[in-house]
Amino acid sequence: MNHHSTWGSNISSVADLKIALEWVNSLGYVRQISRGPHSVGTTLETLLGHDLDAMPLRDFPGCELKAQRKETSSNITLFTKTPSWSDVGSARRVLQKFGYEDDKGHRQALRINLYLY
Q1: What is the mean pLDDT of each run of 10 residues along the chain (117 residues)?
Q2: Alpha-carbon distance 59 to 65, whole Å?
Q3: Contact in structure between 49 and 7 (CB atoms under 8 Å)
Q4: Partner of 57 at 20 to 30 A CA spacing, among 19, 42, 84, 85?
Q5: Pairing of strands 100-101, 79-80
């Protein structure tokens, strides 16, 4: 695998992203292009021709791309939809209503997983 190979087309829809991810899958094993905990995401974004960033904004139309190493113990999803807070008011309101004191007793915390069935 040439580290400089990238998806050569514009990704402007979820359908485009699906095709690009299928292309990445067809490459098989790809050696990481950097070191550290973010190397998987860096490698994937580079393959997809996306500018590297750590912004919590959408990488592609309709989604923020997430990646993680195989057999990691951390919880993460591959795609995280940005919530619409109009139904509940705000993230702060949800935290105040459902949150709990963190394990160090320093702040309100809330860890949740949402599933769509």
Answers
A1: 74 91 91 82 88 72 76 62 72 85 84 69
A2: 6
A3: yes
A4: 19
A5: unpaired
